[in-house]
Structures are given as structure tokens and as C-alpha cells.
Specification:
Order of helices and strands: HHHEHEHHHEEHHEHEHHE
Number of helices: 12
Number of strands: 7
Strand content: 5-15%
Radius of gyration: 18 Å
Largest sheet: 5 strands, mixed
Distance between the termini: 27 Å
Bound molecules: phenylalanine, fe (iii) ion
Structural class: alpha/beta
Helix content: 40-55%
Mean pLDDT: 95
Strand order of the largest sheet: 4-3-6-5-7
Length: 289
């Protein structure tokens, strides 16, 4: 979940917090950083990323060299699912974030990480946001899911339940896995944009991989500074959309407020395990990458 640091748009930002991407200001070195990251992930992801993500990369022509121009990318994306990509200065307030999302505007950072920090990210940069997230937005079902999530976020704000809904974002949009006919695949942007986690999440014996259950996910804590020790698996995007849209979250939030949170790497009654993790990584034994 992206949370905010400021409560009013900084100098140079519009009232809705957007800023120009400033595409013409990227240096050759910045475009080269994108190309380096792209080449590394593009090699890893066939057979690992979900078909929807791979198809998105292709139809949006994200394989062209250099940092994509948001206007051009948005024109292609909008024709497919109605979404556009807009630039914001880092993190924005929750209500702003949800309003953009509910209206199919995906907020993205416009800066790119430094070449000496390819694996280090304090705030989501343009590679995470565009390479990680945007391919999924070309999938009509996922596109509907994220817009519905934006409306759900506006509602959760009023119900004081953002903690719960934020975990659903974390474990689907950022770190979700999907069971495809050919096997488990990644669709979470936090995984597809990471060289190490795109291997760890699928191949390593350490993490638990658990079939997604809404209440279970929304009770589960998460770590923002390390590989996940549990991933949640959806059967399909249709099923994720159906489940989240057809469920009224208000009574669920009320029930969750009466229950303890679940720490990471914990199996609870009712869990359907796709793979049970050894948790060796969590115990400091490293991983097989
Ligand atoms: N159905 C949810 C609610 O009642 C909203 C939602 C939709 C949340 C899709 C997440 C994803 O609040
Ligand atoms: Fe993200």
C-alpha cells in the first residue's frame, strides 16, 4: 500500500497531485538503466510471469528501448481497458490515490533508480510502476479489479479499514501468484520487477504458498523490506474479480477488527496450501538463488 508523506500537493504539482512526466528530460544514462533492468527481467519472466502480464508487455510494446513515454503508453492502454498512466511526485494521500484508481488513472513515479542501486528501492520508481504494474492493466479483468479496488479503497477509508484492504493490495497487486494450467505464475508487480524475488517467489522451497481467502489475507501482516515468507495464490483473475466485487467488505472488516492479525510465515486452520514452505530463508539459512 502506498501511504502518504505530504498532505498538500508540492510546488509544481496540480491540485490532483499530478506532475508532467518530463520524458524529454531523461538522460541517456537513465534510459540505459531502464534497458538494463528490462533485459534482466525479460530473460527471467517467460515461464514465470502470468500469461496476462506477458501479453501486456507485448501489446503495449514495452519492449522498445528506453523509459516509456506515459502519454504514448496511455493512448495504447486506454484503447484496451480505459486506463491511463499519470505521473505523481512520489507518494500521494490515500484519498487521492484511490480517486485516481477508481477513475482508471494509474499513478506512477517518473524517476528511475540510480545505476549503482539496481536492486535497491526505497520508493517505487518508474521501472517498478510501469514495467511491474502496467502490463497487468492491459488485461480487461485485472483492469476492472483495480478500478473496483479504488472504489473499495474510498469505502474502506470511511470504515477505518484501510489496514485490511491494504493487505489485499499487497498480496495480490504487489505479490500475487496465479495458478495457471501450466503451473504457478507471478502477477504481482513487486515480484515481476525484482530479479531475485521473481525466482524466489516461484522456485524457492522456503515460503508458504496459500490459496487466497479474503478474510485470511486481510488478517495477514507483511514485510516491506525482505522477500515475502507467504504468498497467496488466486485460481484466476475472473475468480479474484468475482470474489472481491460480490463480497460486501463492511461486515468482513467488522469481523476482522475482533480477530488477531496473523504474523507472516504462520499456517492457520483452514489454510489450503499450494506448497508448504520450509521457512529456511526466514531462519537465516539463505535461499537457493
Ligand atoms: N466489494 C468491496 C467492498 O464492498 C470493494 C472491493 C472490490 C474491494 C474489489 C477490493 C476489490 O468494499
Ligand atoms: Fe507497486
Amino acid at each position: 500500500m502506498e501511504t502518504h508523506v505530504l498532505d498538500r500537493p508540492p510546488e509544481g504539482a496540480a491540485a490532483d497531485w499530478t506532475i508532467p512526466q518530463g520524458w524529454e528530460r531523461y538522460t541517456a544514462e537513465e534510459h540505459a538503466t531502464w534497458d538494463t533492468l528490462f533485459a534482466r527481467q525479460a530473460k527471467l519472466l517467460p515461464g514465470r510471469a502470468s500469461n496476462a502480464w506477458l501479453k501486456g508487455l507485448d501489446v503495449l510494446r514495452l519492449d522498445r528501448p528506453g523509459i516509456p513515454n506515459f502519454e504514448e503508453l496511455s493512448d495504447r492502454l486506454e484503447a484496451l481497458t480505459g486506463w491511463r498512466v499519470i505521473a505523481v511526485p512520489g507518494l500521494v494521500p490515500d484519498d487521492v490515490f484511490f480517486d485516481h484508481m477508481a477513475n482508471r488513472r494509474f499513478v506512477a513515479g517518473n524517476f528511475i533508480r540510480r545505476p549503482d542501486q539496481l536492486d535497491y528501492l526505497q520508493e517505487p520508481d518508474v521501472f517498478h510502476d510501469v514495467f511491474g504494474h502496467v502490463p497487468m492493466l492491459s488485461d480487461p479483468v485485472f483492469a476492472d479489479y483495480l478500478a473496483a479496488y479504488g472504489r473499495g479503497g474510498q469505502r474502506a477509508l470511511g470504515l477505518d479499514a484501510l489496514k485490511y484492504l491494504g493487505r489485499l493490495y499487497w498480496y495480490t497487486v504487489e505479490f500475487g501468484l496465479v495458478a495457471e494450467p501450466e503451473g504457478l505464475r507471478i502477477f504481482g508487480a513487486g515480484i515481476v520487477s525484482s530479479a531475485s524475488e521473481s525466482r524466489f517467489a516461484l522456485d524457492d522451497p522456503s515460503p508458504d504458498r496459500i490459496t487466497l481467502d479474503l478474510a485470511r489475507v486481510m488478517r495477514t501482516e507483511y514485510r516491506i523490506d525482505d522477500f515475502q515468507q507467504n504468498y497467496f495464490v488466486i485460481p484466476s483473475f475472473d475468480e479474484l474479480l468475482r470474489l472481491t466485487v460480490e463480497t460486501d467488505f463492511a461486515p468482513l472488516y467488522e469481523a476482522l477488527k475482533q480477530q488477531p492479525d496473523i504474523p507472516v510465515a504462520t499456517i492457520v486452520e483452514g489454510d489450503e496450501l499450494v506448497t508448504r514452505g520450509t521457512q529456511d530463508y526466514a531462519r537465516g539459512k539463505g535461499w537457493q538463488g
